[in-house]
Amino acid sequence: MTEVTPVKIGIVGLGGIARGQHIPGYLMSEGVELTAFCDANEDVLKDMGERYGVSHLTTDYRELVALDEVDAVSVCTWPDTHHPVTMAAIEQGKHVFCEKPLALTYPLAHEMYQAAEEAGLETAIGFSHRLTPAAHLAYHLINSGDLGTIYQVVAVYSSGGGDFASRPMSPRLTRATNGGGPLFELGTHMVDMVRWWTGLEITSLCAQHRTFVPRRQWSDTGEWAQVDVEDASNVIADLEGGATAVFMHSRAVTGRNFDQRVEVYGSEGALLYDQARPYELRACIGEDMVRLCADYGMYDPRWGQYRVEEPYPVIPAPTEYLDAVPGARAGRAVRTLAPAFVQAIRGRRPYILPGFYEGMRAQEVLDAAVLSAEERRWVDLPL
Ligand SMILES: NC(=O)c1ccc[n+]([C@@H]2O[C@H](COP(=O)([O-])OP(=O)(O)OC[C@H]3O[C@@H](n4cnc5c(N)ncnc54)[C@H](O)[C@@H]3O)[C@@H](O)[C@H]2O)c1
After folding, report:
1. What is residue 308's three-state secondary structure?
2. Is the pLDDT of residue 282 over 60?
3. What's the CA gap between 301 and 305, in Å, rounded?
4. Which of 5, 39, 217, 307 could disulfide-link to 14, CB 3.0 to 4.6 Å?
């Protein structure tokens, strides 16, 4: 049996995304050791250190990235620290998996990309929705050319719940910490998804931003604060080659919870993706639709060509896409890019893994949208 050289990981920020995606992803990867943890909160640090048997514990990320024992760093803090932590890690020669959005601004994201390139390091960014089996299938359908020339894309990623209006103030509602509102938190995923699926860059866009609740109260001090990020972002965009796209990102869609849908219409076919149905797509692909569904081994003649309640027939995601998401078939999927990042470090970078280049390109679109909304005009890209 060949011995696998261990990849030693340090994690900065031990909150939701580290616990839900990064740590489980590393633990399920062969030959990976969780070597060092950093969190600004000492109680969290101690608790997580004990839970995972990690002995290098620090509240200072500079200490973690300087450890010889660490080969790669996961940056799982809020966006305002992505740039300093990543740059420090790159300076120390560490591979970096940074959460989205890559940075607060496009120039900072560009610096991160360039530094990693120059240092010859592997990078990843947490565009984890690429792993949703239906999204993976959409990528292959579009890239096989089955939809023909892409005409129109509609992408929605919004949330609201029942208490949008009454929520307290939060650092996530500040530009200083988060860079932006739902455009940055949710929209960055969709900009990546559209770029990835279609292979087309956005060449121009026009954005409309609205803050419906401009003042919120800090729950600890009771003080009122001005919200300086948008509650909703609508963007219309030109894509290379003449296609058009519409994006809607919001935190104010009452009663909805992480509603993520994309529709793609091309000259030969169309597809409808819905995160709520992560293991299947609805697709209509010209006269070849039946053949295509049969190719995937999933066509069920009982459904007929069109069902009234579902405009297009269903194509379940093939097994290999389910296998890319550990636990998908058991219904408790862990959608984590960490194993793909480890493979990249081992010299076998998977095509599905987005890096800092993709993070930077998405960031450029976010910056362009902010500029467009502020100045109420179309903005051309590249910036
Ligand atoms: N890929 C996805 O689908 C996805 C989902 C959720 C969140 N995220 C992203 O992950 C990042 C973190 O989000 P989260 O929900 O895990 O936040 P969180 O608040 O749950 O955790 C952040 C942790 O970072 C720590 N921290 C803050 N500043 C620090 C510093 N300077 N040094 C060390 N530790 C520090 C905090 O104490 C906290 O434990 C954000 O960028 C967010 O957008 C991505």
Report:
1. coil
2. yes
3. 8
4. 39
Residues 158 and 124 in one domain: no
Give residue 298's Cα distance to chain centre.
Answer: 28
Cα 166 to ligand 1 centroid, rounded to whole Å: 23
Query: 83, 107, 128: which is the final residue of a domain?
Result: 128
Please check whether residues 54 and 202 belong to one and the same domain.
no
C-alpha 23 to ligand 1 mean position (Å) = 13
Q: Are 11 and 22 in contact (CB under 8 A)?
A: yes
At which of 128, 160, 184 does a domain end?
A: 128
Q: How far is CA 175 from the centre of its chain?
A: 19
Q: Which two tokens stand for residue 355?
A: 């890096």
144 & 120 share domain: no
Measured between alpha carbons, how far is residue 282 from residues 17, 135, 177, 270, 316 in Å? 30, 11, 38, 8, 9
- pLDDT, tens digit (0-9, with 9 covering 90-100), for 76-98: 999 999 999 999 999 999 999 99
Report yes or no on 381 lying in a domain.
no
Q: Do residue 318 and residue 206 come from a single domain?
A: yes
Structure tokens at 45: 């640090």
- Residue at token pair 């309640």: 309
Which domain, by its residues, includes 144?
129-333+353-375
Report in angstroms the alpha-carbon separations of 90 from 62, 96, 97, 198. 11, 7, 11, 31
- Give residue-wise pLDDT tens across range 243-277: 999 999 999 999 999 999 999 999 989 999 999 99
CATH of residue 255's domain is 3.30.360.10
Same domain, 173 and 51: no
Is the beta carbon of 179 within 6 A of some atom in ligand 1? no
- Closest atom of ligand 1 to CA, residue 19: 16
Of 184, 227, 198, give the one whose Cα is nearest residue 365.
184
Nearest CA to ligand 1 atom 15: 16
What band does 284 get if pLDDT is binned at 50, 70 and 90? confident
Quote the tokens at residue 38: 């950093």
CATH number of the domain that 118 lies in? 3.40.50.720
Is residue 99 within 6 Å of ligand 1 at its C-beta?
Answer: yes
139 CB-near residues (< 8 Å, 6+ apart):
130, 196, 197
pTM for this predicted structure: 0.94
Residue 184 · residue 178 · CB < 8 Å? yes
160 CA to middle of ligand 1, Å? Answer: 20
Amino acid at 116: A
Are 9 and 32 spatial neighbours (Cβ–Cβ below 8 Å)?
yes
